[in-house]
Structures are given as structure tokens and as C-alpha cells.
Predict the 3D structure of the following.
Amino acid sequence: MDVLQAIRSRRAIRSYSSEPVDKKTISDLIDLAICAPSALNRQPWSFAVIEGRERLADLETAARAAWLDEDGALLASQPPEVAEHVRGLLQAGFPIFHEAPAAILMLAPRDDTTALIDTALAAQTLMLAAHGMGLGTCPVALSGAYFNVPATLADLGLPADVQVLLTVLIGNVAGPRPDMPARREPTVYWC
Ligand SMILES: Cc1cc2nc3c(=O)[nH]c(=O)nc-3n(C[C@H](O)[C@H](O)[C@H](O)COP(=O)(O)O)c2cc1C
């Protein structure tokens, strides 16, 4: 698949087969992700791998409970329109991890804007690479606030000074690949 075709045909995949993704494939994807550019070539990213549908299902249960718990602290930590959207999605039963067999957490140092850009570029590189290998991915922000609670980072064995910027689900696609959701005409200023 050439790069232009890959860019056009990559989709957020929300339906995965139960087939696991092996460790070598995940390592190869991370090796490709780090081909992304980074400011001053700092390569500030790191990665955490979570394997297994059951493990992700347990984390999804915990994340859902944390979002919707009685004191509402996690929702209150978000901008109001985000909190309202998240509450609506979760109350409607929208899945967080879509029964994917694995996830790669994209980690960036906290309070470092350029590192966030670098890590987001690495995430897109990883998703295109996975697509090129015939795998499906979905970027997930819905888990971010839960993963970034200090106790969750500690439970996962992650350092306290990183932030989980994005979760990238990964697996074999079940069923047909979705069509591209419509794109709006971009605003372009020719200066
Ligand atoms: C930062 C970010 C966060 C996202 N979070 C979620 C999410 O939590 N759950 C989900 O199912 N999709 C999530 N998506 C996927 C988007 O919904 C999807 O990319 C968008 O609808 C366009 O579809 P496409 O990727 O197939 O072109 C996220 C995408 C991005 C870039």
C-alpha cells in the first residue's frame, strides 16, 4: 500500500476480532512510530502496552466507574462541554476500548507542549504503519482522564511524571472497514 493510499483509507476501527496481536508486531509498530519527526529530535515519547481483551475490559469497567462515580470529580476536572459529552456517551453505553485485543498508550512528559505535538505525530505514524500491516487502530481519548489519575498511573507501573496523551487500540479488523466520515471543506488562508 503506498503512503497516499494509506492516508486516505485509514479509519478509526471499532470492531475487532478476538485474535491477539503478538509482541513482535507491537514492537515493530513502536519501531515505526519512532520514525516520526520530533522537535530538536528530542524523541520525548514513551509507550505502554496493554495486552488482552479481558485486561482492557477490566480497565474499561474501572474507567467507566471513575467517570460516573458519585462525587463526579473526574467529570468536573474536564471542560463543561467535554464533561457533558463524555457523560452522555458513557450513560448510553458507548464502549471505551471496543473489545480490542491490545492497546498502546502514547506517553509524553507533562507540561511540555512540544512533546505533546511530537507524541501525537508518533501516534499517527503508528496508526498508519498498523494500517499498512493490515491491522486496525482507533485513537481513544475517552480513557485519558482515568489513566492520568496518579493512582491509575501507579497501578499500571508508569512513572508519575508522564501523561497518557492518547490510547491507540490495535487489532485485527472484524467486519467491513467503515467508510470515511465526511470531511468539511477546510478553511485555508493563502497568505
Ligand atoms: C484525539 C482523538 C481522540 C479520539 N477519541 C476517541 C474515543 O475516545 N473513542 C472513539 O471511538 N474514537 C475516538 N476517536 C476517533 C475519532 O472519532 C475518529 O478519528 C473520527 O471520527 C474520524 O474518523 P476516521 O478516523 O475513521 O477518519 C478519537 C480521535 C482522536 C484524533
Remarks:
- The two ends are 34 Å apart (CA to CA).
